[in-house]
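Handout, page 2. Input:
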Amino acid sequence: MKTTGILIPAFSPGRDGDLGIGDTLSLRNWIDWAARYKLGFLQLLPINENGTDESPYSGISSVAIDPIYLSFDPPEIPLLTTEDLDIARASLGPALDAHLVDYPAVRAAKQNLLETSFARFTATPSPGDSAGFKTFRQTHTGWLPDYCRFKLLIEIHGQHLTWDQWPEHSRTPKEALNFIALLRKQNPNHIDSRLDFFAYVQWLCFRQWTALRSYADDKEIKLMGDVSIGVAYHSADVFFN
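Output:
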């Protein structure tokens, strides 16, 4: 049995109301299009979180999803408002409608929205979302804690340094864990909050992509994922293993 599909990078399909890059809502439009013309599948390039070169084939995790593909239209992200989204769009300026994705600008705008959502979630979480987040963390203990620690170390030591360029106290897993433990002893609220934030973002990513998969199933469209042959040297997987 043969079927026909189309390959489309997740960053490509724009839509009215996006934030300068393709996102999970814009991919729904392509699922609708594929269903209308009786295609069998959409194939995506890897959606793993990119490294600084923004290549889909240089993921910093073999599991973590890149939050740059998140949709932010209410109520896609908890506790964000239309006003929050309007401010983000204004901050993007020309990058909002640019022919090519302005990755630094788009990442900064979406990061600000995620920080806002997380701060409000921490202050006034809904019982349903709190339970969902807790279940996600319990389900993904095999990779999520190391990923969050790796993201914390990147935040501390700089986005453009690979782990072998970090200070000596962070160049091995044992030294890095000791360093994080020391920081946590000095400021536990801040360190725990940052680790929680990175896990929160992944929960949102998995929630949106799971919903997208269900949407495609309902339309009888398969989503074919591409995978990297290997993760990047500068990745949580390589560093902690």
